[in-house]
Specification:
With 133 residues, the chain is of the alpha+beta class. It has 3 helices and 6 strands.
Amino acid sequence: MWSTWCKSVIASVLVVAASVQVQAKESVAAPDQLSATTETVALSKLPREAQSTHRLILDGGPFPYDKDGSVFGNRERLLPAKARGYYREYTVRTPGARNRGARRLVCGGKPPTNPDVCYYTSDHYSSFKRVEH
């Protein structure tokens, strides 16, 4: 009797776990779909600091932070999937912040001074807006 009960409980747990895994996979959008659902914002509507950072990107620097221009790994998978090294991140100064703050521009393309696309985040990669020039 104990063996039958244990088998029943284990089977139920496995069914629930498989169901949760399938639901989780279905709730994540495919990378190609992400670009279609990303909100856009005009460069002129971004904070002045973001516009200044964008100009620095086009000019090739110099950048105020050592991490500026480093490869952005897209670990959050919120941006369209691209080969490693496609995206680079740049700090957007946050007035009053004692560190780099949460604001960034993430741009993709080669050369970095002529990006194919840029995204703005004000919440340290939790969300992005595609920047329209």
